[in-house]
Amino acid sequence: MKVSDYIIEFFKHKKIKHITLNNGGAISFLADEISRSKKFKILSPIHEQSSAFINDSISRISKIPSVSLVTSGPGATNLITGITTSWLDSVPSIFITGQVNSFEMKKKNEKVRQVGFQETNIIDICKTITKSAFHISKPEDILTLLPKAYDECFLARYGPVIIDIPLNFQRAEIKTYKSSIFNKPRKSDIKKKIYKTSNNKLSKLNNLILKSKRPVLLIGHGVRLSQSVKLAKKLSKSLKFPVLTTWGGKDCFNNYDKNYFGSVGVYGNRFSNLILHNCDLLICLGTRLDTRVTGGNYLDFSKKGKIISVDIDNHELRKIRRPKSYLNFNIDIKLFINSFLKILKNKNKFLKWKKFCNQIRNLLQENDQKSKLVRPEIFFQQLNLFNKKINYYFADTGAHLCWAAQNLKISDKQRFISSFGHSTMGYALPAAIGANFYNPSSCSVSINGDCSFQHNIQELALSQKMNANIKFIIINNNGYGIIRQFQDNYLNSRYFGTCEYIGEINLKKICEGFSVDYHSIKKDNEIDKTLTKIFSSKKTSVTEVFINQNHKIFPKIEYGNSLDNMSPCLDQKSSQIIKYFISTLSKF
Amino acid sequence: MKVSDYIIEFFKHKKIKHITLNNGGAISFLADEISRSKKFKILSPIHEQSSAFINDSISRISKIPSVSLVTSGPGATNLITGITTSWLDSVPSIFITGQVNSFEMKKKNEKVRQVGFQETNIIDICKTITKSAFHISKPEDILTLLPKAYDECFLARYGPVIIDIPLNFQRAEIKTYKSSIFNKPRKSDIKKKIYKTSNNKLSKLNNLILKSKRPVLLIGHGVRLSQSVKLAKKLSKSLKFPVLTTWGGKDCFNNYDKNYFGSVGVYGNRFSNLILHNCDLLICLGTRLDTRVTGGNYLDFSKKGKIISVDIDNHELRKIRRPKSYLNFNIDIKLFINSFLKILKNKNKFLKWKKFCNQIRNLLQENDQKSKLVRPEIFFQQLNLFNKKINYYFADTGAHLCWAAQNLKISDKQRFISSFGHSTMGYALPAAIGANFYNPSSCSVSINGDCSFQHNIQELALSQKMNANIKFIIINNNGYGIIRQFQDNYLNSRYFGTCEYIGEINLKKICEGFSVDYHSIKKDNEIDKTLTKIFSSKKTSVTEVFINQNHKIFPKIEYGNSLDNMSPCLDQKSSQIIKYFISTLSKF
C-alpha cells in the first residue's frame, strides 16, 4: 500500500469528497493518484488563493471538511490568506502541500534559504494560523499524522490544519493497516465529555431568567460550528426572548422569526443595538464578543444587562479586552443547550419587552440617504423578495458587506457567509464557486465591491466552465467607500489609496471575455426588473449596481461610542420618542 | 515629532522614493502622513500580492529598496508570496504592515486567535522568510528598529524585512533625534570588512588558472546583488575565459559578448551545458549551484573541472546538496574581484578552447520542433531583434520562461528578471509595472503563460492608468505545458489539473475591458510585423502568441542525467561530431 492509497482510503472513510487541486511538480504524484482513483470531485481554480477560499467555503457549508492540494513554494504560500480566514472563523479545512523530494530538502540545521527547487518551509510559516501543521518526515508518519490532523480540525474549537508531504513519499510504500483504526473514537468526542457543566450553575442561570424582565438571546457563529442551529431554535422557543445575532450568527436563526430583531455591532441595525443596550440579561451563545460587536467602548456593552457567555474556547472567555461576564460556560453549545433544556423552567413570555422591541424596530427602519443612483439599502431589501430562489449569500469585505448585513433577511434554509474575522477582500467570488461545487443545484448570490471583486476575477472562467448558478452582485461605489468614509471622519476627507482608478475598468467587456452574462442597475426602479431577469436563468451572471460614491454606511457606531449612540444622530422627534419608550422600561 | 515624521525623514535620507500602498484601517494614519508629505511616488495596486511583486521588482532594479505599506490581516497575509520571492532571490525589499491599535492587540500570553478587528500576528508568520521581522511595541522602537531593519536588508546576504506598526503609534509623538544618526556606518559596511581573503588563497587560484586549459567563468545572480556587474566584465576581460551564466546571472553579462556562451542548467542551452561539462576549471561567482543549475545528479556537475566558489553566504558554501568545491571564497564578490585583479597574472587566451566552444555552439543551434502555429523559440529569437527598444524583460513561471531564457539575448543595458528561487506564477505582470513605476520612460517586455497571466490580471487596469510602456506577451499553449510535459514523461500522459478550461477565456475582450491594446500572433511569419507594430507605440499592449499545446521545452535534462546528456538525444551525425570535438580536448 502506498501513502497515496492510505490518504485516499482515509478521505473515503471520512466521507471527504470535494478537493481543490493546483497541480505542480511537488504535488504531482499525489494529485495523479487522487485523480486516477475517481473517488473524488476535483476542481482546479487558477490561483491557489481561490482554492483556499473554495475549501473554506465548503468546509463552512458541509459537515465534512474539504481538502486543498497544492504544490510547494508559491503554491503553498498563496494559501496563507485563505488559511488565516479559516483560522479566525474556526473553519475545519484541510490543506495538503506537496514538498520537494525528502532528499532534496534543507536538512534540519542547515541554514541556507532553499535547497530543492521551489522549496519553502510552509510548516514554520503556518504554525500560528493552524490547529496543527505537520511535515511528513517518513512515509509511515502519514498513518498517525493524517488522522491526528483530521481530529485536530474538530478538537474543541475548530480550525484548519496543514500537512506537508515530500514528492517521493507520496507514492512510497508503507506497511498496511486495518481500516478499523479509523473507527476509534475521535479525540474531539473524548474531549467534549470533559466540558461538563454543573446543574448548580445551570440553576443559577434559570434563576436569573426567572428574575429578568428584559432578556436577550445573542446568537453567534459558534452555534453553527457546534451544529446547534436547530437546538438554538428550540432553546429560543422555550426562552421566548427577543433574539439578536452577530454577523457570523446571522444565518443561525431565522431572520423571519417574529422574535428576531436583527444583528448588532458597529455596523449593526440601530434598533438591534438599542435593544441590546437596554436588556437586563444577555445570554451569548458562541460569540467571542469581538469589538466589532461591542464597539470600541466594550466596557459599556450590555451595561445594564448581566452577560452569560457560552463558548467552547476558554481563551475567549478569559480574553482581556471583552465585557465582563456574570457567568461563563466553557462548554460546547450543543451540550449546553441539551443540559439546560432539561432544567429550564420559564413561563414568562416577556410580552411588554417584545412590544418595546417591535415599537423601536418599526420606528427605526431608516433609509433616508438620497441618491439619483441606486440606494444599496433598497437593493438588498428588494433582493430579499427573491429569497426563495437563493440558497447561499456570500459577502466580500467593504461597504457592500455592511449594507448586506443590515438589510438582508436570512431564512432558516439560507446561509450568509463572509470572512468575518480576517475580513478578506476577494473571498466572495471563489467562496460562491465553492458552494456550487459542493451543491451544484444550488443558487448563490455573491456580493462584492467594485475593487474587491477584482482580487480574484480570473476565477469567473471557472464559474462559467462549471455552469454555476451564481449571481455575482457588484456594488460599484467607485473605489473603497468604507475607507473614504474613514478618511471623511478622521482625516479631513483626504482621499488616498482608495483605488480611484478602478472606474476605468469596463466590467461588461471583462464579463464578455469570460463568457459570463452581464447586467447593470443604475436606478432604484430598475432593481426589480433586473433581479427578475437574472433569477429566471440558472447561468452565472454579473450584475453591476451603480450607487453614489459618497453613499454612507449608516447607521454606524463611531469609535468610542456605545451601542445606543449610532451615527448619524436621529432627528429630534424620533429621538424623543425613543427616550420615552426607554423610560417606560423601568416600569415593567 | 511623530513616528510617521521619523519614517518619512528616514526614507528621505536613504533616498527611498517608491512606495506601494494598499490602504485600509490599520495603516491609514501612516498612509495619510506619507501621502501628505508629497515626498514619495506612491502606487496603489488592487491586490497586495501585486504590491509585493512591484516592490520586489523595484528593489531588484534600483540600488535603493522600495517599500510596501499595507493594512493588517489579509493586507499583510497577501504579501507572503511576494516576501518569499524576495527572500529566496536575496532582494532587499521593505514591507510595513499596519497593525490594530496597541491596546486592541492580543497580549503576549493571551491565547485567543484574535482580539482587534483584522488582527493577525504577521511577524510570527514572516520570521523564517525575512532577514528580520520586527513589531513596534512602543513608539520609540521605531528609532532603533527601522534603521536596524534597513541595515539588515543589506547585511551580508541581502533579503527582505518586515516591520509591523500599530495604528495608534503611527502618529504618536516621540523624542526628537539628530539626523546625523542616520550617517553612522552601516553594519553592512562593517561586516563586509570581515570577509577578507588571504593573498595566499588568491595565489592558489591564480596557479590553477595558469595550469588550466579549459576554464569557465560562471556568473550568477550574486554578481548583480553585490553591484559587481561592471567588475565582473573587467574580470572576464583579464581572464579571457568563456563565460556562462545561470538564469539569475543572465543579465549580469552581455549576452552579445564574443566570450559569452549561454546559460546552463536543467533547461539551459545544450552547448552551454556541454561546455561546462568539459571544463577543467570552473570559477563560480554568486551562484548557489542550485539543482536547477547542476541537474539532480549534482555530484556529476563539473566532474572534470575544479570548482571555485565565491559566495557571501557561508551557508550556501557549506550546503550539503551541492557539488564539492576545490576552493571556497566566503566574501562579497566586489571585494573578491578587486583583490583578485591585483594579483591576477594570466597571459593565456584559451583560443583552442574557445574555438571548441564556438564550434559546438554553431553545431547545436537547434530548432527542430515543427508547428503550424508559432514556434516559441523563433518568437524569442525575433524578439531579440527589437532589443534596442527594450529595457527590461520580466518572465513569469512555466514553459515560456524556459523558452525565453534559452533564446533571448540580454545586452549590457538590459535586465532579465524572474522569480528564480520561489518561481512564482503571476509575478511578471506586476513586476513589469514596478519597472515602469521606477523608470517611467522605460520599455518592459513581460512574458507570461496563458494561465500564469491570469493570476494578477486585474492589475492591467493599473498599467493602463499609468500609461506604462509595457508589452505583455502571452505564450498561449492552452494550460500548463510544463506540467503536461512532466505528465508525459512520468505519468503516462495522464493530464490532470493543468488548467484545461483556460481556453475559454477571450483575452481580447478582457483587454478591451481594461482599455488595453490587444494583438495576436498565430504563425511564425506574423511575428515580425506584429512586433514592429507594438514597438512603434509606447502604450501598454497585450500580445497573445498561439503555439501548439504539445510544443516541448527542449532541450532539457531529465532527472538524474548530467549536463552532457540533454533530451531529446541528438541525431547520430551531430552526436558523432560532438564526440569527435570532445576527444580533441585532451590534446590541448
Tell me what you see in this structure.
The structure is a homodimer of 588-residue chains. The first copy, chain A, is α/β, with parallel strands linked by helices. Chain A is built from 25 helices and 18 strands. The model of chain A has no long low-confidence stretch (mean pLDDT 94). At the A-B interface, helix 2, helix 5, helix 6, helix 21 and helix 22 of A face helix 2, helix 5, helix 6, helix 21 and helix 22 of B.
- The CATH topology assignment of the largest domain in chain A is Rossmann fold
Biggest sheet statistics of chain A: 6 strands, parallel
Oligomer classification: homodimer
Question: How many E strands of chain A?
Answer: 18
Q: Report the mean per-residue pLDDT of chain A as an integer.
A: 94
Q: What low-confidence regions of chain A span 5 or more consecutive residues with pLDDT below 50?
A: none
| CATH top level class name of the largest domain in chain A | Alpha Beta
Count of helical segments of chain A?
25
Set out the fold topology.
The structure is a homodimer of 588-residue chains.
Chain A: H1 3-13, E1 18-22, H2 28-37, E2 41-43, H3 48-61, E3 67-70, H4 74-77, H5 80-88, E4 94-99, H6 122-126, E5 132-135, H7 141-154, E6 161-166, H8 167-170, H9 187-194, H10 199-211, E7 215-219, H11 222-225, H12 229-239, E8 243-245, E9 260-263, H13 270-277, E10 281-285, H14 291-294, E11 306-310, H15 314-317, E12 327-329, H16 333-343, H17 351-363, H18 376-383, E13 392-395, H19 399-407, E14 415-418, H20 428-438, E15 444-449, H21 460-466, E16 470-476, H22 481-490, H23 507-513, E17 517-521, H24 527-535, E18 541-546, H25 572-585
Parallel strand pairs in A: 1-2, 1-3, 3-4, 4-6, 5-6, 7-8, 7-10, 8-9, 10-11, 11-12, 13-14, 13-15, 15-16, 16-18, 17-18
Helix pairs in contact in A: 1-7, 3-5, 3-20, 12-16, 13-17, 17-25, 18-19, 20-21
